[in-house]
Amino acid sequence: MCQFIETIRIANGEAQNLKYHNFRFEQTILRHKLQIEPDIRKHIKLKQIDKALIYKYRIVYGFNSLYTQIEKYNIKKIESLKVVVDNDIRYDFKYADRGNINVLYNQKDKADDILIVKNEKITDTSYCNIALLNSELWFTPRSPLLKGIMREKLIKQNVITIKDININELDRYSKIALFNAMIPWENKICLSIDDIHI
Fold first, then answer.
1. Fewer CB atoms near the end CB (10 Å): N or C, the chain?
2. CA 183 to chain centroid
3. Are 8 and 21 in contact (CB under 8 A)?
């Protein structure tokens, strides 16, 4: 049986965006008929943490098992992306097994991360959802590999707009933003389109 993960940002001593995490957690449990408690709040236990620091709280779970890990978090430095193509890749749920993504990541050459293209459409980087800036509007791919919780939140807040983005349309945009549950929009990694290597 495969395992899944939920990665939660702990800031100011509190778990962030639990409403969005809990929805995905519940949907994964229902879809795969897992035999674990579906309320994610009951699995989060924060003890003796420094409220001035940011932590990554990982929940790893499977059919009838669950364990947690917590560690201090620093945003990884990303200054360039390498475009890689895989028309068969799937990552509909947040699986613990990232083998197919790791194979693509190993193709990044001298870049810091990858930008995955599927059927000529831009999806995600290895760990982040993305948005592209056109004038003053940010657009996020309609079909990412994973519909991340921060992406869902930003869509509902009208910060980003869903749109199909073909790889051959990159020159219509000026910047690319990387974000995820650990990297909220206010801390997004922002690169020039020129930092994407095809």
1. N
2. 9
3. yes
